[in-house]
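Could you show me just one protein sequence together with its fold in token form as a worked example?
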Amino acid sequence: MAMVLYELCGIDEELRFSPYCWRVRYALAHKGLTVETRPWYFTDKEALAFSGSDKVPVLVDGDRTIADSYEILRYLDHSYPGAPLLGDGVAEARARFFKHYAERALAPAMLRTIIMDLLNAIHPKDRDYFRETREKRFGRALEEFHSPAKGLAQLDAALEPLRGQLKESDFIDGAAPAAADYLVFGSFMWARVVSSADLVSNADPVYGWLERMLDLHGGLGRSAMRVTDVEGAYR
């Protein structure tokens, strides 16, 4: 029986934009594992009731159900030890650091830059939910939170540690990509799918890494549907 991965989708079922789901997509490709993906919407909570989670990603592998992107990566290494993602304790500690770095430093800066594009990419039936929950979180209207100039400045500062690493190696994990790369790249795929904003200059070491990541696994990221591919998305 094929694995099943529940993924957040947008205005088109093939528009998959969750940064956490992209982490898992890349991890599965890294392992050479095939998966059946199923679209899920923010407001379709009942579809995940079986998992005990109210958000994606959710991976079903036979009689096992695993929620949370990081826990899925750990599960994959335990159950399919070939082509390790996390490796030894030192590598896993590094990966966990980059998980927090992506979520607490990169994603907030990106969100401030692309949030109105993100709203446009979300399925219409989910937009009221998204607006209500995010405005409660931010304490202001999305339009007030949206500030590309501030977001890009914040992102530029947050990328400094990554630039240092990528000046010395092709990938965050060294000569070849592994969990740390996928944990960070998921956020960039999120932004790429929903927005055409240029987040990184092509002279930046991070840009070269992004290009290498897009080409990995048969161009997995480069071939992904973007909101600009969806007919009528901006009407």
